[in-house]
Specification:
The chain is mainly beta. It has one helix at 32-36; strands at 6-12, 17-28, 38-44, 53-59, 67-79, 84-103, 107-111, 114-143, 146-157, 167-176, 181-190, 201-213, 216-223, 229-233, 244-247, 249-256. The chain is built from one helix and 16 strands. The strands form two sheets. Strands 1, 2, 3, 4, 5, 6, 7, 8, 9, 10, 11, 12, 13 and 16 form a 14-stranded mixed sheet that branches. It has a two-stranded antiparallel sheet with strand order 14-15. It is extended, with a radius of gyration of 25 Å.
Length: 258
């Protein structure tokens, strides 16, 4: 059993300014795989200098604790005018008992008359990390038919969590061509991941929607239009993460709301 409390407070200073803050605790319960996995990661054949087959194996741990997060958040909303607003949110996260992998004591086994040296990689709870950053959102409606939204996020982290982009930004423009036709354009930029393992990239997309009747929407959407594909995640043998490439796509959709 785990407890995940959260305390939040919000203050309307006046019609233009609102501030808020929060403190929360969250956990991630160990999975079945982390509890009793026994996975062969690599096998090195015998060589002249070392006559045994060497196995590297990922081994679970039934004594794992839940990963813990203590999160502090604060924000400020500024309604500059009826058509323009800004939202600023800052955070500081402290992670404890994060899942880690440590090399255990090697041992030899014999299978079908073949001797092997096993090097266990044991899952443990010795990881710690801190992350902090902020997000800034601006909404502007210069006219009834035109809406613009800009967003930026910055993230700093310890070396233990270097798998997240430090900078992200997006821009969205929405224009009402008529009462029943809307066109959206959106772009985003993501900085590099994992110390350059995944390069930074910029992408853009567009959406054309038609509402022939109330509750019915027909749309044509294009995503990642600036290139054929781009890499978003690199492979990781330990976690089983596969390299993920996002391809350019164009599709249509029909949505019925009732």
């Amino acid at each position: 059993m785990e407890v995940q409390p959260s305390a939040r407070a919000l203050w309307h200073v006046n019609d233009e300014h609102t501030v808020w803050g929060a403190v929360s605790r969250a956990v991630r319960i160990p999975s079945r795989a982390e509890d009793d996995v026994d996975l062969l990661l690599a096998a090195i054949p015998p060589s002249g200098s070392f006559p045994l087959l060497t196995e590297s194996r990922l081994v679970g741990n039934t004594a794992l604790r839940a990963e813990e997060l203590l999160a502090f958040e604060a924000g400020h909303r500024w309604q500059y005018s009826d058509s323009l607003s800004f939202d600023l949110a800052a955070f500081y996260n402290m992670y404890d008992h994060r899942v880690s992998a440590e090399t255990g004591q090697s041992y030899t086994v014999s299978r079908n008359g073949v001797n092997s040296l096993v090097v266990p990689i044991i899952i443990n709870n010795n990881g710690e990390a801190d992350t902090y950053g902020f997000e800034l959102l601006a909404n502007w409606r210069p006219m009834d038919s035109l809406r613009l939204q800009a967003w930026y996020a910055a993230l700093e982290h310890s070396e233990d969590t270097a798998g997240d982009p430090q900078h992200q930004a997006s821009l969205r423009i929405s224009y009402d061509i008529s009462d029943s036709v809307i066109i959206d354009g959106f772009g985003r930029h993501v900085s590099e991941l994992g110390d350059g393992a995944v390069s930074s990239y910029t992408e853009a997309g567009a959406r054309l929607a038609w509402f022939p009747s109330p509750g019915l929407e027909l749309a044509l959407v294009g995503q990642n239009l600036l290139r054929n594909d781009h890499l978003e995640f690199s492979s990781d043998t330990l976690t089983g993460t596969q390299s993920t490439r996002i391809e350019q796509s164009i599709y249509g959709s029909v949505t019925l709301r009732f």
